[in-house]
Amino acid sequence: MSRMSQVVAAIVALLVLASAPASADTNFTYQGVLEENGNAAEGPYAMSFSLWDALAAGNQIGTTITLANVSVADGKFTVELDYGGNSFDNTGRWLEIVVEGVTLSPRNPITSAPYSIQTRGIFVNDAGQIGIGTTTPQRELDVEAEDPVIRLTATDPTAGVAARLQFKGSAGPPIFHPFGIIEFYDDLDELRATIRTTAAGSGAASLYLNVAPEGLAQMSIHESGVQFENQIKPPIAYGKVDFSGFLRSGSTNITMVQHLPPVNSGTYVISFAEPLLETDIVHATLQEKGLVTARVTADGNVVVNTFSHVTAHPESNLGFSIVVYRP
């Protein structure tokens, strides 16, 4: 039989494999009908498949998939194609097919299955990161919009039922191990503040509000509890301490830092020009990944406990900072 003197191809269906394993969930099945000289084609055919962003001309997306022996029976053939998740960004895609060296025309559009229409606007990259409003997600779930809002609505009218956002920490030490962290970044993608909860022994937890870089707190503690205020109070003491226990220049009202090992972590006892009150507020910020806690002792000192994930600190500016406010 003269190979491909006249070829006509038509799409029968474009399906997404619901049963595809997680490691191959970007595969899809393409089924087509191939005719040769007006008759249903039969036998093995060499085919190649390329993805494009336009019906004609345009730019090729990804690499060409070449299959040497595609079985065609009664004109029908089925192939498995995989261009990766990054090749589909919710804009148009067309499939160009070459059979035995002959390019079929026109290209075939990649269309959506009816149920997948409800996933429009959602992008999943090859690493499994999900983007809503973005095709370049930077985290496991990345939402971008002019004014993004995530809303949780409880529909059960039972008393006590409410929408909730849960954080579950991994197994870790009985103290200082984080259960959950909320981080706030500015437009330059720099961390500015955190709200975090950590284990404080069996069955207990502590809540910390930190500002990074160090700034003025808007929180005070009263006999009735914790109150947030709009007024800004200047700090009564401020300091930066490196992980060796050295007090850096620019610190105020701090007289001494005593460091207890181990290296890069441990306990720091900080003394002040005037002993602190137990009602004073201390903010501690770690300038590396890790954990930090601070408390005022009965003798007016501050005890800071740190644990850093970094095993070596060649840079002298790595450590922690503290700011003390008086309500």
List keywords for this structure.
5-stranded antiparallel beta sheet; 4-stranded antiparallel beta sheet; elongated; mainly beta; about 45% strand; 24 strands; Immunoglobulin-like; about 325 residues
Structural summary, described in words:
With 327 residues, the chain is mainly β. Helix content is 0%, strand content 47%. The chain folds into three domains: 7-111, Immunoglobulin-like (Sandwich), CATH 2.60.40; 119-144, no CATH class; 172-327, no CATH class. It contains no helices and 24 strands. The strands form seven sheets. Strands 4, 5, 7, 8 and 9 form a five-stranded antiparallel β-sheet that branches. The chain is elongated, with a radius of gyration of 31 Å. Residues 9-24, 215-230 and 311-316 have low confidence and may be disordered.
Helix and strand layout, with pairings?
Blueprint: E1 7-15, E2 27-36, E3 39-40, E4 43-52, E5 60-72, E6 76-82, E7 94-99, E8 102-103, E9 108-109, E10 122-124, E11 130-132, E12 141-143, E13 175-185, E14 191-200, E15 205-211, E16 219-222, E17 225-228, E18 237-242, E19 254-260, E20 265-272, E21 281-286, E22 290-296, E23 302-308, E24 319-325
Parallel strand pairs: 11-12
Antiparallel strand pairs: 1-2, 2-3, 2-6, 4-5, 4-7, 7-8, 7-9, 10-11, 13-14, 14-15, 16-17, 18-24, 19-20, 20-23, 21-24, 22-23
